[in-house]
Amino acid sequence: MCGIVGYLGEKNTKEILLSGLKELEYRGYDSAGIAVLQDDNFESYKAVGKLVNLEEKTKDFTTESFAVGIGHTRWATHGKPTELNAHPHLGESSYVVHNGIIENYAELKKQLQADGVTFLSQTDTEVIVHLFEKNLKDASSAFEAFEQTIQEIQGAYAILLVTKSEDKTIFFAKYGSPMLVGINAEGEKYFASSDTPLIGHCTDVNYFEDGDYGYVDAQSIALFDKEGRKKEPHFTKLSTNKLSAQKDGYRFFMEKEIYEQSNVITDTLLGRLCEEEVLFDELDTQLFDGIEEIKLCACGTSYHSALSASYMFERYSKIKTSVEIASEFRYRQPIMSKDTLFVVISQSGETADTLETLKMAKKAGLKTLVICNVDNSSMVRLADACILTRAGVEKGVASTKAFATQVTVFWMLSLYVAKLRDTLSQEELSRQIKLLREIPTSVKVEDAMHERIKRLSKRYLHGHGFFFIGRDLFFPLALEGALKLKEISYLHAEGYPSGEMKHGPIALADPELFTIALLPQHLLYEKSKSNVEELSARDSTICAISPLEFDKADDFIQTKKHNDYMLEFFEMMVVVQLLSLEISVRLGNDVDMPRNLAKSVTVE
């Protein structure tokens, strides 16, 4: 979710870069930097924290004639948020900014260090600039060296590079991470990760396709495809509405955030998966010394992710786990023993009830851990340890990608603890890690699926309520699906364990009661199917979500067949999010700003 900007022209380059980075703040970041090349001279500035810190550092710097510049807001993946790890990264005479992940960076770094190259940062990005400069020594031109560099790196990237050997040029490459270039009548060139930094500066933009690379100078844009063939840019008119541009063409921020879950989960996984183990560099393994219980405490959607975690900790890590609603835990005089790791979960890190329980745990002398999306938030500062979910800014009040990244973190953490406690075989641990790598694919929204849910949604606009039902890990998902629908459609919905229907709730069953049934193939399918049949026999309207056809369903949303119920979980998560979205849209509600709700709940 990092942000990139670039500029080539005669205006105040620093101001254009800082202004562009400000427009990308919504993507989330923990450090920022710029580099400007003018008259064969580089000026570079970096700062940790918010852009105001970078603005302060650059207050006496300005450009008054032609210059090229690049800027970056960084969300830490490889290496902590420090000035050394912030972009742009420096070679001997070049600077680079990069979004994404260089998968073969360790191998390249080892080769470069053997050649005498000294690395200053912990990032994967730094290999790009050193590899470029190594290639430059034997290449006939800077572009040939850049082209060779792109061929040698593997992974996902959006790259801007400037070098003294071509001091009026910006080199670019895009694969898997968003980037576009904009132009105007004055011959200036602007780069950015999304439209918003270019609005007001450019009239037309070209969105790069995966594999595109090339360079720009004052006179031209040279663009090549992944096969190295020259191609013409395809320019389209730039929107003048910044809010609309931030939505990247989606109708609502919530819709955009559902679609970008694949990318943000990739960010959540970055640098944390090896072939045989999960790595959390931010955790001291001693955090788990003497721990016999994990207590999870949260509110709302984060409570549902905590419930999901409880299944995984007990199943994989073989450790006693309990889950608490923060607003209740505060007042019931709980017994807190020091062999308990107290874990709080919050998207914002400021949720008042949850923050107070963290203070209680600290006062009682418990070890504490926070799972959070916002660095430097109150909970992050207070807890003994922190794992950041890296979801980026979530503008829709009804949480989607925050939940997805929290569950991803908990899956990884349960395997991390399993390794420490030796509760899973190495074979099973490797299998689970392989599954983790498949999450981004399982949450990608397919057009056919979304279109089916759109059509289906018109049948669910009335009635006296919804049951979302699921067993085991799919019970917390049922709770989350019901909460999403309540939040944005204002229809009554409840989440239940499938087996609880006959213990009271089934009394409500009739044709005007809609049951959304989660039926994973690989987890208690026959048991869950039997519970749904009980509702069907009592005339409840059934919408089954499953990879297997169910003849008792009135409506059926077919998911893909996966090898494990965890991947089924993530795909069904997307389905219930989209169903809630489309029902709300049909009802004419404000999806992003539902009534009576706030994004960060900082009061009791």
What does this protein look like?
The protein starts with a strand and ends in an 18-residue tail after the last helix. Helix content is 34%, strand content 24%. By secondary structure, it is α/β, with parallel strands linked by helices. The chain has three domains: 3-246, Aminohydrolase, N-terminal nucleophile (Ntn) domain (Glutamine Phosphoribosylpyrophosphate, subunit 1, domain 1, 4-Layer Sandwich), CATH 3.60.20; 255-441, Glucose-6-phosphate isomerase like protein, domain 1 (Rossmann fold, 3-Layer(aba) Sandwich), CATH 3.40.50.10490; 445-586, Rossmann fold (3-Layer(aba) Sandwich). An eight-stranded antiparallel sheet has the order 3-2-4-1-10-9-11-15, covered by helices on one side. Strands 5-6-7-8-12-13-14 form a seven-stranded antiparallel sheet. Strand 12 and strand 13 form a beta hairpin. The protein is built from 19 helices and 25 strands.
Concise description?
Helix content is 34%, strand content 24%. With 604 residues, it is α/β, with parallel strands linked by helices.
CATH topology of the largest domain: Glutamine Phosphoribosylpyrophosphate, subunit 1, domain 1
Q: In CATH's first tier, which class of the largest domain applies?
A: Alpha Beta
Strand content: 15-25%
Percentage of helical residues? 25-40%
Profile the largest sheet. 8 strands, antiparallel
Number of strands: 25
Tally of discrete structural domains: 3
Rough shape?
A: globular
Oligomer: single chain
Poorly predicted regions: none
Task: Give the CATH H-level superfamily of the largest domain.
Answer: Aminohydrolase, N-terminal nucleophile (Ntn) domain
Content-based structural category: alpha/beta
Q: What integer is the average pLDDT? A: 92
